[in-house]
Amino acid sequence: MEAEWLEALPRLRQLVGDRNFATWIEPIRCSRNGSGLCLEVGSRFFQEWLTRHFLPTIRQALTRPDGTVPALRVAVSAEETHAPAATAEAPAARARPPVPRAPRIGRLVPNYTFESFVVGASNEVAYQAALAVAESPGCRFNPMFLWGGVGLGKTHLVNALAHGLLARPPRRRIACLPAEAFMNTLIAALRQDQMGSFRDRFRDLDVLILDDVQFLAGKERTQEEFFHTFNALHASGRQIVLTSDKPPHAIAELEQRLRSRFEGGLIADIHPPTPPMRLAILMRKAAAQDVDLPAEVAALITQRSGPSVRELEGALTRVLATAVLRGAPLTTALVETLLSPVAPVAGLLSVEAIQARVSQHFRVSVTDLKSHRRDRSVTFARQIAMYLSRTLAEVSFPGIAEKFGGRDHSTVMHAVRMVEYKRTHDPDTGQLLMMLENELRTRPAPSRAE
Questions:
Q1: CA distance 206 to 240
Q2: Distance between the two ends of the chain, CA-based, in angstroms?
Q3: Are 254 and 127 contained in the same domain?
Q4: Domain endpoint, select from 227, 248, 270
Q5: pTM for the whole thing?
Q6: Do residues 116 and 281 touch, judged by C-beta distance below 8 A?
Q7: Is a pLDDT exceeding 90 seen at residue 240?
Q8: Pairing relation of β-strands 144-148 and 266-270?
Q9: Do both 196 and 129 map to the same domain?
């Protein structure tokens, strides 16, 4: 029964979309219930919402080849607490009045830790920043704003940050929740005339972690309340961590006063993992399930899954669930029958293609990029091309140095560090890199005479 649930998860993601899947499906714990399945959730609100809005879709995803559907029961977990989020509770003497709860508020994801996070060139800055915040919350990088595409590890990293904070003294009150859950809790408090309790609950935190903050866009009442919550926490030196699928200046319908506060701290972005990172992530996730994944099978799953970590995890889940249901061994033949080939990933780009696209954008020749000219415009273009060669083509520093006129590899290392710094601190550079990366991933670089 549990295997049926695992196999249904990728179909559910496609049916409900990534945002609904992360908010309403991922938190579910599935267990056997006689001849059917019991779906355990964190609160009665969650139970009612899931039953009303998603139960028919869940039944559709669980439909067997013979047309039958296992019996389903949605229940509130007995472990659910009254904490506002994954928290280190305050002493009983400081207990506050209960406030309506929202989904995904009771737990952190247990295996989303720093130890299980695979670090590489695409996420190292964000990872190191999260470590620094875990060691000294409220002192450095406050607020910390992490952004990147769907399924690249933002939620993993902020869960790891929360785990790290809870593992260190002193005892802290920590909330880690999606922006949608914050809004739903606000709505419930407004309807039940409990805004005082709502404000006490969130403004008395030591650390507030809000995931997918772009969800606040266009929600005027929620933005107003979050603005005051942000100010109260920040003024008292409490840590604020935010994640989004885009940088603050690119979030449409976000109030300027919030945008300026988001931009007042550290902004770190996360990029799609390189091929070696994807393989390492896959092997680590397989090991976490006590699965000995053959190297050739792991390589093929990596090649035939999408660019995000979630797509990679979904492909692994599908393969493992099918192997269990069929009693079949994990072979490349099984993977080939289940996963269709996908377009080449970014790591297969060539340095030459990157040089051609960068030279076209900056209106300098490829010869200039390879030369020892130190004009400001040429130097910046060269640094951009070296950085993209490292992050997209996955070529070694000496290999890149050779492609740029036989330079020393330390020159390339310096260029990569400089661009990483500018990407973090200069929104224009961040936007430029995003544009070039998207163009290089989606179509070949046009030819250009040197």
A1: 9
A2: 61
A3: yes
A4: 270
A5: 0.54
A6: no
A7: yes
A8: parallel
A9: yes
Are the C-beta atoms of residues 192 and 100 closer than 8 Å to each other?
A: yes
Q: What is the pLDDT of residues 73-123, one digit of tens each?
A: 888 876 543 333 333 333 333 333 343 333 334 468 888 899 889 888 788
Whether the Cβ atoms of residue 151 and residue 273 lie closer than 8 Å to each other: no
Tokens of 259: 């945008």
Q: Kindly state the tokens that stand for 427.
A: 């929104």
Q: Where does 12-161 show beta strands of DSSP type E?
A: 29-33, 36-41, 72-76, 144-148
The answer to whether 241 and 207 have CB atoms below 8 angstroms apart is yes
Residue 120 CB neighbours (<10 A): 17
Number of domains in the chain: 4
Q: Which tokens sit at 370? A: 């390879």
Buried (b) or exposed (e) across 380-419, using 16+ Cβ within 10 A?
Answer: bbbbbbbbbbbbbbbbebeebbebbeebeeebbeebbebb
Q: Tell me which amino acid residue 64 is.
A: R
Q: Are residues 183 and 111 in the same domain?
A: yes
Are 247 and 175 within one domain? yes
Q: Within a domain: residue 10?
A: yes
CB 214 within 8 A of CB 242: no
Note down the domain range covering 398: 346-442
